[in-house]
Structures
1.
Amino acid sequence: MSRAGAPFIEIYEAHTGDVYRYFSYRSLSREAAEDLTQLTFERALRAWPRFDPGRASAKTWLLAIAHNAWIDHLRRSRHRETIDIDDLSEGEQPYVEADQSTGLSAGLSAALGRLSEREREVLALRFGADMRGPEIARTLDLTLANAQQILSRALRKLRSELESAQTASGPDPAAPSAASTSRPRPEQA
């Protein structure tokens, strides 16, 4: 199956990581990110004959499909019964091993979870899928200025969340202190 000179397998190999990282930035489990990545490429393969490289790059096209798969995932999950994990006894709580991670630190995942859905979406496209502003705007049907504003606001909020978490947990003992990284004053030299 070839479209505009590139067979689908080449598109798959070039962009699997972008799609997977897009879902992992959504703070999903590794399995959910893998399942949604697979679903995205299944949909893309079925739609491959309709892909028009004149309208968007293959990466932008795939991330639009991934975005739709994410929206479908959210709709399905809203219809499921939710259980507050704090209401479960210790033996009933799910156990997730460290290798089940999507590669995001626990602090980053928690901070991302405190952002709005729109902010997480833009960050996932920018950093998870490595898309640039125009591609993000096209994927989300936003103006470039709006996409850039959301990204800027999301980064400020994320930085604030991470700094607040670090302040609450105390300084990182491995990080150099302000005193050890400051330059000596002329009178001390």
Note: The helical segments are 8-24, 30-47, 58-78, 106-113, 117-128, 133-140, 144-169, 178-181.
2.
Amino acid sequence: MGFGISTCKLLAMMTLRNMREHGVHSLAIRCGALWCNHEAILDVSTYADDLTVPSFGPRMVCTICGAIGADARPNWNERAPACLFGAPQ
């Protein structure tokens, strides 16, 4: 009674095109080193639409500790209302 590929719904990875359609044009990158956790924002507006968001992670090199590999996710904070960040309404 295991789960085979035919019984599981496969999820597609988010592409930059899909991310842009949702109003996000940058990635939130977090260093993969357990001791570092450095965070940065990467503008990906010049990259091709068909690239997947997770494909950026293994290519990242931390500017603080030099570790190769990171967690790459859409920077959803771009879509947050300004009032969440203390700006006047």
Note: The mean pLDDT is 86.
3.
Amino acid sequence: METGDVKRAAEPRPQARSARDGEAGLRGGDFLHAVLVHPEIPHNTGAIGRTCVALGCDLGLVRPLGFALSDEYVRRAGLDYWQHLSLAVYDNWDDFLARARPGRMHFLSTKGGRSLYETAFEPGDTLVFGSESAGLPEPFYERYRESLVRIPMPGPHARSLNLANAASIALYEAYRQVAGARAEDHAPAGSSRERSATGVAR
């Protein structure tokens, strides 16, 4: 499934990096990080990468992946933003923990006992998302039980949300808490640089 990864070395992706290549992993600092554990659908990962670029977040991918990073669907969903993504790829969860050395982690799951909107996010937090078909690895539900967070779904017929949608909802709520007020405070009133959620200048 991942054989196409070997093609990455020949592709001009100056901002992307692999933890396999000796990188320290996700950057430290005072913002937010996103991690996908065993993602399966390329266009979901591409869309999440685009969201991370918009927010200035790092994105970590934990193998196995259900696609090659050279997949056209990843690039198509990420559009021309993909080249600006700060990306790290990890061989497994233990590799991620050792190389990224994350601080506080929040694990998004329908099994979470705490709502996203009851969760207090802090600078440097990592938001972790499972795969499209299986969610988080089974051991995570016990190991990280106190850190499971759910996105409310009051509708009676939905079992889960699309992964890219869930990531956008969670990352933007974390952004709102961590940096939203600060960003608004520093934006000049009426500035053409202020933009709505759709990216249209106000």
Note: Residues 141 and 148 are 8 Å apart (CA to CA).
4.
Amino acid sequence: MSDTMSRRPKRQNAEQRKSGTGATSAKRKPPQRKRSNAVQVKPPPPSTSRGKATRSRLKSALAKLLESHSYHAIRLEDITSKADVRVSLFYHYFQSKTDITHEVLTDLLKRFRDEVATRSRDNDPLTAIHHANQRMVALYRANPGAMRCLLEVDQADAPFVQMWRELTLEWNQRIAANIRRQAPHAFRTDTEYLSLAYALAGMVDSFLYEYFVVGNPALLQAHPEEEDVARFLTVLWYRMLYLNNPSDTFLKGLAGFKAISRIGR
């Protein structure tokens, strides 16, 4: 009996189990160290040409992925794979997926601001409106995925919506100032002019989102070319603002607006 008992494994007492000093404690893996600085500190810009090229490839890869995937569906592995960069190198260039996306969208909006700024201030109202709509159409056409990312409305899932709101405010303030210069006594306050600008620009934003981001087949069929879209929106804007149609030369295939005008007379 004593031989049998001597061959049985010894049981851990309560104190051993509590302190983890029994035989099984040797099999436990040490706790893994958490990455301490991967997403806490933004890396400085690279100083070498190779580093700059790698950083640029990562941004280009994300921009391409946004055209076919939602922001929340994109993983770091997707970005690095498309850029042909090791995942471990990502944090040498960016703080996080939010960080790189913020840079891509900032670059996009800066290019848009620069393009809009090229317009001559001496243009007549119709030309100015059409130029603005052409730039907006080009922005949506070339970047539907980025625009979807910017225009997400759920605050919990929309880390970049503030960027779009800032641009929208800046854009609408420009519109309001132009309208006030043309009709200085139309409204009493700046906020009234600004509200008109928001209404006009909001119409354009909603239409372009439906056309380029959603891909509404009815709109695509009605206005198959980029210039068709810009001209259509310009006529709407002009009619809403001046209560009149633009010239027949500008209307071209949109002469149906003339028939609509006769209804209210």
Note: Residues 49-95 form a domain with the Arc Repressor Mutant, subunit A fold (CATH 1.10.10).
